[in-house]
Amino acid sequence: MSQQDQSGKATADEVRGGAGRAIDILFLYPKDMNIYGDFGNLLTITRRLSLYGYEPLVHYCNQGDPWPGQVDMVLGGGGQDEGQKKIIDDLQDRAEGLRSLADQGVPMLVICGLYQLFGRYFQATDGTRMEGIGIFDAYTVGQDERMIGNLVEESDQFGSIIGYENHSGQTHLGTGTQPLGRVVHEGTGNNGKDLTEGARTQNVIGSYMHGSVLPKNPAVADFLIRTAAEHRHGSFSPLQTDAQRAELAHLAELAQQARKIAATRPR
């Protein structure tokens, strides 16, 4: 049973985490799939986990690295076509394990290049076709024209989401995958035609939002955290000091300011 001070608040030792408070995070291909600030998503998750009283344990997984024994969350970023070509064989070797984690309800966030490879296939601008791992019912075809700029979308699950897109691939969703959101103000989205952006299936999220996306959208970050805690421990039970609550409030204020700036800034 957890220890608390006389006011009923969590003690400092308890909030630091420890037995029964660990969350194992798998960060995919940081060497080749980590551009446009995507590493900031990992920083956001680890900091917010600590503020909620959990102990984040990060496993960096590049080509040939061992698979961790425990995975409660998966994060991955974007990369150029050459980066995707470098990691595709290794990703295929890990496909069954990733699909199994998705089926178990493990939360995942994959951005841009990895979002594309989590679909059925990605055809690069030079005609190279890379078979994806099929978590998303989606396919992507590279184009010469890039889609760049601030992006504002509305999500059934998360409300307004704001980020920055930079991609040339056009992604088309099949009937088995829902979009993360629909473009409502600025931005191009998946393909510039149907107003969809990103993808969502089970607890897996794909998006073209760089920048990085989680600092500006704490609701998405907290969904990943809550779902990971429920997967690992059966429930999400934040344990916080007054200082940690104050920092979370400050982060929320900064996120709101960033969202206002991004939503009004021209592409």
Automatic annotation (TrEMBL):
GO biological process, one term: cobalamin biosynthetic process
Residues given in the record as substrate binding sites: 146
PROSITE patterns per record: GATASE_COBBQ (PS51274)
Pathway the protein contributes to: Cell wall biogenesis; peptidoglycan biosynthesis
EC number(s) from the headed UniProt entry: 6.3.5.13, 3.5.1.2
Domain (CobB/CobQ-like glutamine amidotransferase) ranges: 25-217
Keyword Glycoprotein: no
Keyword Transferase attributed: yes
Molecular function in Gene Ontology: carbon-nitrogen ligase activity on lipid II; glutaminase activity; transferase activity
Name listed for the protein in its UniProt record: Lipid II isoglutaminyl synthase (glutamine-hydrolyzing) subunit GatD
Originating species: Bifidobacterium aemilianum
Gene behind the chain: gatD
